[in-house]
Amino acid sequence: MRTTEPPKSVEPRPERLATTVDASKFAIASKRLTTWETIANNGALRKLAILLVLALIWELYARWLNNQLLVPTFSATVQAFAAAVISGELPLRVWLSIKVLLVGYGAGVLIAAVLTALATTTRLGSDLLETLTAMFNPLPAIALLPLALIWFGLTPLSLSFVLIHSVLWPVALNTHSGFVSVSPTMRMVGKNYGLRGMRYVALILIPAAFPSILTGLKIGWAFAWRTLIAAELVFGVQSGSGGLGWFIVTNKNILDIPNVFAALFTVIIIGLLVENVIFRTIETRTIRRWGMATS
Predict the structure, then answer these.
(1) What tens digit of pLDDT does each residue of 65-94 get?
(2) Which residues, at least 6 apart from 197, have a Cβ–Cβ distance to it below 8 Å?
(3) Coil, strand or helix: which one is 22?
(4) May I ask the CATH architecture of the domain 97-288?
(5) Best label site of 15, 171, 226, 249, fewest CB within 10 Å?
């Protein structure tokens, strides 16, 4: 026979005791950042420190080598750069290169936008883009320079033609890749709102795929910039009135190596400014503001 034990007495739950604490007794612990922590938390200062270290290495190596015809010192390069800027020759060469670059880059981006829009909205356009990129993307842009010279002569059109080729395919490929990766949910939302054709591309696909588009624009810029300098190294435009590449060649011919390095230094400065000012500003005001990037 099973016996049941009497239930044990349960201790009553003590009531929660709430006490009021003076707010003045609370404090937020704060600590002033050290100089190293301030530099480590600032991206611009970190990059500046890297540039200063590289400049110091350049200066020390050039002084150790002690041969201005091979590697001039960083200080001699800066002096040549300042002299070329004051004389007005270097800004003129930079402006001539930038004009040609803007024309070729803008035309390449425009053609890439048209091809990508067609590839996104029609099957024929998709097949066309895939075929053209498979044919022409592996072809180096500088390899078209002899044909450009035959077709357009020693004119800026020759350089623009080569630049269009260097910009068109990376921008088109990255843009189309971004469009393809847009989620089906966003596509369905756009179609439910009745968006079709170019309005669908402009209002749905471009904002969603903008990180890939911006990457394509960066790659296209880099390809165009180095293709332009390489093409100008081969020939000047209109009897020696070329840009930075021609400036490099003419100073190499007279063995003015500090001026050659000053021109290369200018190419680097322009690249840093475009990447860290123009593209960084676009990225901050678009994909970072939209929450598409965290770093």
Answers:
(1) 888 888 888 888 889 889 888 888 888 888
(2) 121
(3) coil
(4) Orthogonal Bundle (1.10)
(5) 15
